[in-house]
Amino acid sequence: MRRRSAAYAPLAAALAFVFSCITVNIYFPEATVRTAAEEIVQEIRKKDGEDKGATGAAAALLRGPRTGAFSLVPAAWAQQETTVSNPAIRALKESLKDRFPSLKPFFAAGNIGESNKGLVEIRDEAALGLKEKAALRALVKDENGDRGKLYAEVAKALNIEASQIERVQKIFAESWIKSAEPGWWVQNEDGGWVKKG
Fold first, then answer.
1. CB distance 179 to 114 below 8 Å
2. What DSSP designation does 32 have?
3. Which of 18, 72, 83, 193 has the fewest CB atoms within 10 Å of its CB?
4. Looking at residue 49, what is its pLDDT?
């Protein structure tokens, strides 16, 4: 019995070595995160005249069919499959929506900009008084706090590991920058700031 155990010991050690060398590939649903980011950012930053319920497939239904009667069914089904939501995400979206009108003048004046990390960054406070500076700093702190929570909640809703939240944040950064209005400051990949044209 001992001889058999001794004979299998090197085999067991070799198998343990082989399995320890295998790297685990973590699945990251980039396309789903990108779609969710675009939908969420669009909903938060929709123009004043837009219908509040007209996002994604609902907007397509309101616009009417483009290529025939059957094109609406797949679009509505696809929307249902890619929408990422839970009570926490809905609450964060509402908080971000409510704050956006207060941030908008500071974006327009160049006091703040969209960073390449998916956060709002203070750029220039020189022309602001003490009360305005304090108000701006509080707004930016609250905005970035909600954005950080949003990224974590989206990752949780999509079963993405916490170690991958930075990737979620980066994808959201692209959507925030894309939705910035002309004249707002946005940060390039290299960290430089430019006015969006």
1. no
2. H
3. 18
4. 46
